[in-house]
Design a protein that fits this description.
By secondary structure, the protein is of the alpha/beta class. Helix content is about 35%, strand content about 20%. Helix 3 packs across helix 4, helix 3 crosses helix 11 and helix 6 runs parallel beside helix 7. It has two domains: about 120 residues, Urease, subunit C, domain 1 (Roll), CATH 2.30.40; about 290 residues, TIM Barrel (Alpha-Beta Barrel), CATH 3.20.20. The longest helix has 22 residues. It is built from 14 helices and 17 strands. It is globular and about 70 Å long. It has an eight-stranded mixed beta sheet, with no helix packed on it. Strands 10-11-12-13 form a four-stranded parallel beta sheet. It binds zinc ion (ZN). Zinc ion binds next to loops.
């Protein structure tokens, strides 16, 4: 008993010390020449944003800057909330040489540890381009995506907030078409895909991903002609809901899209199964569209015919008021471009679809927070939320290309990029400083 009281005393002392520590925390004051609110589609001038302990504490024109605050002068820039890529694959990088952009070979050649390091680098490249949240939707080897998320959360490295799917769950073979000997004798699709062909396997696969660090579930709805039935997709959704997870479906056929929508899936990836009537149904049921609309400017990654259809269907989705996200499926190397620059390039498709800039910006931010389910903790520049923001020289409401020159990035109240140069030093720690959880 006495030992217990001593422990309680020690804990109380530690808690008091940590509260005292917080009380003297550094305040950062940002002078924003223009502050863009993408939710409202408006810009306010000469705003002050205060940050303390990694959170926004005040935003407004008449906010007093406390004495001793570090002042960051962005009075020549447009400050705005961070961008969201709702569908990326940071832990895979396929390329022209040697694999002709066929990721089956990338998967055979690049081991998970190397892919985890690629993911760390790609994450920083995305953050530098202004993406403060990335949904990482599988193809990450043996949970390199979970390692990435945890390394960022624990303070080992800088990076966006990661919402990761773990291994993509599909019927036997996943998106691959393995030979019998490679599938049966060498389990060749694992860990790129997790086979689940029966209700028991579906439940177990969802639980495995949760155990190993996923935060969302990704399934192959129709990678094989038989695909998943509406009931099977509903089982995924129910099992994921027990953990508080949502389910995204990779869809490549009209029939697959119909089944996923009927089952009440959270989000649909890609645009190959989309039609006008399915868009109407998605709008009615509030199913998110992660259309991954590859721009024609990324030569070799789409065709003119495919691109024309992508632009038309994106326009159709917008006209039908489908809940849209900005999503890229950027999982390849484009020589001369960072992963972040590849992702930003996707604004070309949105421009081609003639979607108003204000809507594109809302989709890249507000909708991104909603599909990531962070809108109450991270995203908007609002008091109490995590202090993530970016700044660009121009005004993206007038010209989306302003997003190509993100010159300032703050993540969790720490400056990651200033005057166009990455300054990640304060993100690196010699141990886990933001939590001890393994997953
Ligand atoms: Zn994808």
């Amino acid at each position: 008993m006495r030992r217990l009281s001593a422990v309680v005393l020690l804990l109380t002392a530690a808690l008091t010390l940590s509260i005292a520590g917080n009380a003297v925390a550094q305040v950062t004051a940002i002078r924003a020449g223009r502050l863009l609110d993408p939710e409202a589609g408006t810009v306010s001038t000469n705003q002050i944003v205060l940050v303390e302990n990694g959170k926004f504490t005040a935003v407004g024109a008449n906010v007093a800057i406390p004495s001793g605050a570090e002042v960051i002068d962005l009075s020549n820039l447009t400050v705005m909330p961070g961008l969201v890529d709702a569908h990326n694959h940071l832990a895979i990088t396929y390329k022209e040489v040697p694999e002709h952009n066929v990721y089956y070979f990338t998967y055979v050649m690049d081991p998970t540890p190397l892919r985890a390091i690629q993911a760390a680098s790609n994450g920083m490249q995305m953050l530098s381009a202004g993406f403060t949240i990335v949904r990482d939707m599988g193809n990450a080897g043996n949970y390199a995506d979970a390692a990435l998320r945890i390394a960022i959360e624990q303070g080992w490295i800088a990076g966006p907030t990661i919402i990761n799917s773990g291994i993509i769950i599909g019927g036997m073979g996943g998106q691959f078409w393995p030979t019998p000997e490679m599938a049966k004798e060498h389990n060749i699709v694992y860990p790129e895909y997790l086979d689940a062909d029966t209700p028991d396997e579906i439940v177990k696969a969802v639980r495995q991903n949760a155990l190993f660090g996923a935060k969302v579930i990704k399934i192959c709805v129709d990678c094989k002609p038989w695909g998943y039935t509406i009931d099977e997709i509903k089982l995924f959704i129910a099992e994921a809901a027990k953990i508080g997870f949502k389910v995204e479906g990779h869809v490549q056929t009209v029939d697959g899209a119909r089944r996923a929508i009927a089952a009440g899936i959270w989000s649909i990836a890609h645009d190959r199964g989309m039609t006008d009537s399915l868009h109407k149904e998605m709008a009615r049921k509030g199913v998110w569209r992660a259309g991954t609309e590859t721009p024609i400017t990324l030569t070799g990654h789409t065709s003119q015919a495919r691109y024309d259809n992508t632009v038309a269907m994106l326009r159709n989705a917008w006209e039908n008021k489908v809940p849209l996200t900005f999503s890229t499926d950027a999982d390849y190397y484009v020589p001369g471009m960072t992963r972040g620059e590849v992702a930003i390039e996707f604004i070309e498709t949105w421009k081609a679809a003639k979607i108003p800039n204000a809507d594109v910006l809302r989709i890249m931010t507000t909708n991104g927070y909603k599909v990531s389910e962070t809108e109450n903790t991270r995203g908007p520049i609002k008091r109490g939320l995590a202090a993530d923001l970016i700044a660009v020289p121009g005004n993206p409401l007038e010209n989306l290309d302003a997003l190509r020159t993100v010159s300032f990035v703050m993540k969790d109240g720490i400056v990651f990029k200033r005057d166009g140069v990455m300054t990640p030093e304060k993100f690196f720690h010699g141990g886990p400083v933001n939590g001890w959880n393994i997953r």
